[in-house]
Each structure stands twice: as structure tokens, then as C-alpha cells.
């Protein structure tokens, strides 16, 4: 028996999604879990689809999770596509809506972005005679990466979602301070480049000359940068920092418990 045409096929939104698949994969990778949860709440996704997208994100990479979501949306009607855009708007990602509505199949050139973070450090120590010795030095970290024009990102705001905050972030506070305190220039540079923190956040950290206090302040700021900030932090700091790998493993274990 011959199969008829897909009643949900809409050439317009297919072009918008497929034409911007690569850009959407890059822009939504750091918030895919938040997005699919919102879509599920709006009854735009079924539970088994939610679990499949989460599984791909967890076992492969978040970009693959976004691509799987796009495949699901391609099989849905305009109503679901509208709900998808509503979720983006609720997540303050209106620029992505402009992108998919304005350039369905346009190509974008990659641009190189350079980020430099400089901190003036003052340290004190006591010599054998009991005299206090003060030394000063400048720590500088420069990070370069390529971003595609037309993919818009911004620093998030709001409290890190539960149970990420209470079950992962809080128990690892001291480990985070330990990993950050000797590498603050590089860590803040990576987080700034990954749109996790803002220039104002970096300025706040730079004003604190004691490395431990500065690291504690950073650990205090980070969970206030959006519901899905934990995954963004992990992505910005992997694979170099052990604490990022620990957080990643704990997040995977937590998601396994939630989806069982």
C-alpha cells in the first residue's frame, strides 16, 4: 500500500530548521536540556522523545541532541514549530527566532574572536626573620576561538536549576575554589569566551587581589548565570580542568536517575 504525503510537512518551517541546523546546533547546545523540558511542558514533545534527545546529548554531545530535536520538529506541524519559537522567546533567545525567520538557508562566515583577561595580583609572605614581604605581578590570559556570524549568544541570568545546584554545585564548592584559585586568568577567560560570565563579572573578579577570595567570588557568581549554566561551565572548561570532568560525570549520573 502506497504511503500518502506527510500531513504535517510544511516546506516553510522545514527550510527554516534544516537551513539553520548547523547554527542552531551551536547556539542551543548549552541549553538543550532546558529547551526540551519546556517543549515537553507545552506538550510539543512526547516523553519518549524527551528521553531520546537527552540520551543523545548525554552519550554523544549536546549538539547531537539539538540535531535530534530538529529531526523531531520536522515531523510536526506549524503549531509545534510555533511552540518551539515561544520557548526560545521565553529563554530570551529572540535573536535566534530572527535568524531562523530571516535566513532559512543562508551561509555564515566564521569570525575569530580574541579575549584577553588581565589581573594584577598582590601577594604577601613572611620570611625567616618574621618580616612581611609583599610582591606584585600581572597575570594575563588570551584565548582565541571562532564564532559563526549570525549565531547570537548572551550571558544568562537566574538561579541554576535544581537539583544541579544542591546536589552537584554546592558539594563541589571547595573543589571548584581549589581548581580555580591558581588559574583565575585562564578560567575567567574561558568562561567569558563561552558566554557564561560577563565583562562586569570579570571586572568584579579582577578587583579582588587575593586568589582564594577571587575564586570564591567566582564560584558564588556562576550559579546565578541561568538555569542551564552548569552545562555551559562544563563545556567552557573541558577537557583541561579536572573539576569540569567531575561535574560532567556527576551531571550524567544525576540525569540517569531522573530519567529512570
Features:
260 residues, alpha+beta
Written overview of the protein:
Helices cover 56% and strands 13% of the residues. The protein has 260 residues and is an alpha+beta fold. A two-stranded antiparallel ribbon has the order 1-2. Strand 1 (110-126) and strand 2 form a beta hairpin. Helix 9 packs across helix 12 and helix 10 crosses helix 13. The chain is elongated.
List the helices and strands and how they pair.
Blueprint: H1 11-19, H2 21-28, H3 32-41, H4 47-59, H5 62-74, H6 78-90, H7 94-102, E1 110-126, E2 132-148, H8 164-169, H9 173-180, H10 184-193, H11 199-206, H12 211-221, H13 229-237, H14 242-259
| Major sheet | 2 strands, antiparallel
Strand order of the largest sheet: 1-2
Query: What class, by secondary structure content?
Result: alpha+beta
Strand content of the residues, in percent?
A: 5-15%
Tell me the number of strands: 2
InterPro entries: CARD, DEATH-like_dom_sf
Pfam family, one: CARD
Protein name: CARD domain-containing protein
Domain CARD: 9-103
Quick gist of this model?
The protein is α+β, with helices and mostly antiparallel strands. Helices cover 56% and strands 13% of the residues.
